Inverse folding.
């Protein structure tokens, strides 16, 4: 339904802008969120492996679903992760998980 209404681009041209060795920006071109999130976590891991830290922001994306899945991708690579969206924050350092829900904090 969202594709028919053109709220989600079924043929996005997703672009990754490299801001520095550590920082990238993913323009998801109104794609389905989990597609953009998968690209973003892979880019963050790549940045972290090169420079010690990987920061990636995503814009123009739909809802990306189960956020813990993307955090787990970094954990499997032995990396710590801070993951933020409009509602929740996931933090995992040395296998210690903390999830903060903004809706409950404010």
């Amino acid at each position: 339904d969202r594709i028919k209404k053109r709220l989600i681009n079924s043929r996005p041209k997703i672009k990754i802008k490299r801001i520095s060795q550590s920082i990238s920006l993913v323009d998801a071109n109104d794609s389905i969120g989990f597609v953009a999130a998968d690209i973003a976590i892979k880019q963050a891991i790549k940045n972290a492996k090169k420079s010690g830290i990987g920061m990636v922001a995503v814009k123009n994306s739909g809802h990306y679903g189960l956020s813990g899945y993307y955090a787990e991708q970094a954990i499997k690579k032995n990396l710590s992760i801070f993951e933020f969206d409009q509602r929740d924050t996931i933090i995992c350092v040395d296998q210690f998980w903390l999830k903060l829900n903004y809706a409950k904090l404010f």
About this structure: The CA atoms of residues 26 and 39 lie 8 Å apart. The longest strand covers residues 23-31. Residues 100-106 have pLDDT under 50 and may be disordered.
